[in-house]
């Protein structure tokens, strides 16, 4: 049976590309430039799958999607958009789209999604509330598109999510977005920072305690699990949780109930767990600092947030966003010159988005001029680089070999410890640091094609798959000609 694909896009070039690619793949294709014709086809029962742009000359696809759902609930709809924001992905999911693809898209990926949608039509998600245009996450890079799509798929589930990433990448912001746009949005969002609680009080903080259960327990106290009932419990810096608390947390995840410190009556819990860490938990497991069984309970859906240096193209959008926030707080808006912006994009941002936000606030508060030039940016970045020697690694001369660059980095790293030595396990940590970007860049260069990437790296395909899974590599299927 030959499937018929309905394509709606105002751009004639995109209609042509899709028509040719889908035709070569063996599909019948019908194309249109407006929503009215698309709706006539759908309402007449034509087509097995729809591919549509969001913005059309006569109607927005997000307004059309509910009508398509009501008329033909099992018809999969793929939404495309050049407005590659977090809210676009979320609205596509909420309106019942099968999947969302940012423009420019990779044809191979598009065909794979079409094949999957036709083979196993996805049950459309329940209609959610209109979320408006308040974007909790900013960025249009390929790395962030991967995050947006994963978040959109997680919104209608209660699966446990493990967010990893360097400090300042926005882990709590992502956890909050999972809650605010998910099925538990009407419940509480409770965040706990494991690193900020004294070790001896963590169990009491999480599970509550009875009066007199320990010295200083003058009254009964509720724990964070009880406070988060019906909502989301965000366990930040989970890698700093002491082993005894890990054992209790594992029991809660296994049994769905817990007892307060000093209590005897089991209490049922109904929370979604989202955990986050900037540590390598597999390394912690090898060192006996984290329970392996707890790791697998928490790592149901792994989500790695890319550092800012891996998505430098998002820097201008982030700067505009932070200047707007500063303006709402009474600070002056500024304009960044082109050469100053280029300098900011080349900086490696060891403090990631948080460091960038702090810089923008300083620029808004301390400088009277409306236009910020490269001289001011250099003056701001120089002391930051002196405090973070690793920040200069991105600017190592081009003729420096990889071995020399690693040696320079290690010298600086050892200097940070003075007369002491770094923590044990340095060999595996360095291999991990090198292996991750190697595989990531290879997968990006081959646009997510694992066979080509394995050949490029000289690895067996099964070995590559295993390393992608173990290292948590996000496979970005980007279009090389996107720029």
TrEMBL record:
GO molecular function: ATP binding; phosphorelay response regulator activity; sequence-specific DNA binding
Gene3D superfamilies for this protein: 1.10.8.60, 3.40.50.2300, Homeodomain-like, P-loop containing nucleotide triphosphate hydrolases
UniProt keyword Isomerase present: no
UniProt domain Sigma-54 factor interaction: residue ranges: 137-365
PROSITE patterns assigned: RESPONSE_REGULATORY (PS50110), SIGMA54_INTERACT_1 (PS00675), SIGMA54_INTERACT_2 (PS00676), SIGMA54_INTERACT_3 (PS00688), SIGMA54_INTERACT_4 (PS50045)
Cellular-component GO terms for this entry: cytoplasm
Keyword line: Activator, ATP-binding, Cytoplasm, DNA-binding, Nitrogen fixation, Nucleotide-binding, Phosphoprotein, Repressor, Transcription, Transcription regulation, Two-component regulatory system
Keyword Metal-binding: no
GO BP annotation list: regulation of DNA-templated transcription; regulation of nitrogen utilization
Entries under Pfam families matching the protein: AAA_lid_14, HTH_8, Response_reg, Sigma54_activat
Function: Member of the two-component regulatory system NtrB/NtrC, which controls expression of the nitrogen-regulated (ntr) genes in response to nitrogen limitation. Phosphorylated NtrC binds directly to DNA and stimulates the formation of open promoter-sigma54-RNA polymerase complexes.
Protein name stated in the entry: DNA-binding transcriptional regulator NtrC
Species: Notoacmeibacter marinus
């Amino acid at each position: 049976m030959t499937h018929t694909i309905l394509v709606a896009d105002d751009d004639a070039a995109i209609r042509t590309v899709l028509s040719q690619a889908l035709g070569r793949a063996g599909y019948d294709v019908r194309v249109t430039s407006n929503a009215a014709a698309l709706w006539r086809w759908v309402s007449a029962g034509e087509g097995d799958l729809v591919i549509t742009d969001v913005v059309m000359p006569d109607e927005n696809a997000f307004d059309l999607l509910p009508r398509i759902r009501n008329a033909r609930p099992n018809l999969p709809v793929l939404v495309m958009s050049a407005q590659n924001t977090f809210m676009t992905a979320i609205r596509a999911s909420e309106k019942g789209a099968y999947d969302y693809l940012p423009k420019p898209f990779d044809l191979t990926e598009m065909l794979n999604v079409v094949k999957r949608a036709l083979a196993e039509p996805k049950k459309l998600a329940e209609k959610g509330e209109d979320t408006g245009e308040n974007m909790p996450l900013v960025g249009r890079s390929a790395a962030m598109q991967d995050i947006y799509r994963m978040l959109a798929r997680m919104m209608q589930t209660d699966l446990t999510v493990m967010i990893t990433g360097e400090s300042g990448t926005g882990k709590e912001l992502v956890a909050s977005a999972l809650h605010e746009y998910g099925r538990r949005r009407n419940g509480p969002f409770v965040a706990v920072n494991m690193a900020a609680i004294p070790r001896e009080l963590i169990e009491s903080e999480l599970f509550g305690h009875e009066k007199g259960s320990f010295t200083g327990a003058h009254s009964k106290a509720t724990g964070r699990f009880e406070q988060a009932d019906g909502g989301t419990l965000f366990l930040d810096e989970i890698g700093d949780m002491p082993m005894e608390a890990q054992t209790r947390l594992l029991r809660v995840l296994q049994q769905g109930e817990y007892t307060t410190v000093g209590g005897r009556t089991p209490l049922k819990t109904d929370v979604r767990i989202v955990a986050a860490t900037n540590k390598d938990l597999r390394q912690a497991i090898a060192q006996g600092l984290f329970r392996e069984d707890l790791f697998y309970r928490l790592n149901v859906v792994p989500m790695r947030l890319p550092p800012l240096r891996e998505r430098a193209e998002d820097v201008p959008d982030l700067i505009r966003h932070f200047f707007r926030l500063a303006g709402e707080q009474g600070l002056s808006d500024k304009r960044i010159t082109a050469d100053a912006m280029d300098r900011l994009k080349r900086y490696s941002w060891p403090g990631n988005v948080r460091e960038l936000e702090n810089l923008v606030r300083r620029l808004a508060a301390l400088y009277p001029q409306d236009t910020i030039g490269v001289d001011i940016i250099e003056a701001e970045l120089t002391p930051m680089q002196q405090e973070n020697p690793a920040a200069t690694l991105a600017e190592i001369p081009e003729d420096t070999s990889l071995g020399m660059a690693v040696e320079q980095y290690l010298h600086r790293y050892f200097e940070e410890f003075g007369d002491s030595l770094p923590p044990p396990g340095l060999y595996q940590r360095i291999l991990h640091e090198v292996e991750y970007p190697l595989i990531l860049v290879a997968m990006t260069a081959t646009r997510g094609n694992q066979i080509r990437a394995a050949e490029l790296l000289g690895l067996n395909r099964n070995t590559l798959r295993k390393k992608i899974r173990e290292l948590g590599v996000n496979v970005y299927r980007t279009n090389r000609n996107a720029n």
